Amino acid sequence: MADEAQVREILAPTLEPTFFDFNFPFGFSRWFLFILGLALSALGILFGVSPYNPLALAVVIYFFGYIFAISFPSAIVVVVRNLRNLSPGGTDIHYATGPNQEKTQTSKGTETEGWILNPPQISEWNLASPHSPDDGGMLAEHPRKLGTPVPATFTMYSMLRLIQSFAAGIFVYLAVEKYDDVDPARAGVAIALLILLVQFFRRRKTMRISDLATSSMQGLPMGGVEVFGQLRPRLANGWVPPIQVDGDRNKIVYGQLDWYWEYGHQFNWEEYVEAKDDEGNVSGEWKDRSAYKKIRSDEGGALALVHDGTGGVAVESDLLSVGNAPRTGSWSDVDRGLWNTRSRPSGKVRNLRASHEWKSNGWSIGDPFFSHCYARPKTSAEIEQQPVDKTIAPSLIMLTKEGEEPGHKVMVHRGSEILALANSESAPSAYLPSLLLALLSGVAWLMTL
User: Fold this and answer.
1) φ, ψ (nearest 5 deg) of residue 323
2) For the chain, what are the domain ranges?
């Protein structure tokens, strides 16, 4: 485990406001987007310049340029990568068996979900008194220890989008002037306003996260709160039974605190589709088609709590259902005979395929849990149903999605605050590129009136 000094040194570039950050792409996917976006932009510009087609140039610069721009990571994304490197073994966290040798599910990680720093293993939990503090204290990844990242005023991505928006807006103006057609200007304004709307809601969500301090379980206030911790079983010395997906002992997931499985029939085929051009010429091509029929499903859960090292607080299953639970398993069994259960597609088709499909999703013991939710005192019935040590303050609290505070929107993220803010942008970065495109396209529109 990395020490706090190392973590602080890595975090330093994102904890104070900066005007501009530039970082080279890293990893195969970002370098692939860099090369693809650059190549498509160059070829598209050459095509647009050759016959001088300003509308084509606007489309190429704005849309192909986006592929190029997103290859550049922000400082927050780079910091997350560097923090992950302190805990070798990849983004997935593997837990040992439970107290009675119960198997556990791997806590999966992605670029924006999962654990960054290694969390406490089961052997470090106080299973006899699940609401009590851990000997190790607050989780190393808790926002009170890591701090809240601050996005730069401008990143390489936002600067490129600003330049691309300016260039696209100029070419929209030239296209309107050349073709005497207002449609490009209308499209430019519509696209810019749509992106502004999306950015507004993204920005509002990240501001809610940034502005609300993360509470510790030991001193959790009542009402709207922001919490982060590790999901654990609530019962003293208890565990949860394995889930047999569709009743099959060969399809089992372990340690599920909230789970859902589904079984269905998947159909795939190719269909020959003909199209007629403006001159009446008919051409055709094979296109992939698919259909899915859900047959049955089931869901359930177990008593869960969220533990941040200072204490564990019970969480209602309804709150867990707010977030998108990760995939915990998938199975497939090819069976062409399933086509006898439905009508075959009409027209010219080929390569008919069918399969039985099972999938399971769920929150597993040990998963990270970050949420904007509500804290309330447990009712007498809840305390009687599951007796707790009333001298431990967190044992008397319940986290829920129901509350009365206006503007406190309930959200759940499977990862810490820094991952929830990994793609956050400053107000200038979020709004200026689209505002510039809307302004230039609007001027082109007004010139035609």
Assistant:
1) -80, 165
2) 4-111+148-214+422-447, 261-300+327-361
Encode 288-323: b = buried (16+ Cβ within 10 Å), e = exposed: ebeeeeeeeeeeebbbbbbbbbbbbbbbbbebbbeb
Question: What pLDDT was estimated at residue 2?
Answer: 53
What contacts 348, CB < 8 A, 6 or more positions away?
A: 271, 272
CA distances from 437 to 168, 251, 441 (A): 7, 52, 6
Nearest Cα to 196, choosing from 437, 442, 443, 441? 437
Give the mean pLDDT of 219-242: 92
Read off the pTM.
0.88
- pLDDT of res. 130: 94
Give residue 5's identity as a one-letter amino acid code.
A
How many Å from the N-terminal Cα to the C-terminal Cα in the chain? 66
Distant-in-sequence, close-in-space partners of 255: CB < 8 Å, separation ≥ 6: 95, 98, 102, 103, 104, 105, 239, 240, 242, 364, 365, 366
**Which has the closest alpha carbon to 30: 69, 60, 65, 86?**
69
Structure tokens at 62: 């704005």
Rounded CA-CA distance 405/306 in Å is 22
pLDDT band at 1 (very low <50, low <70, confident <90, very high): very low
* Cross-strand partners of 88: none
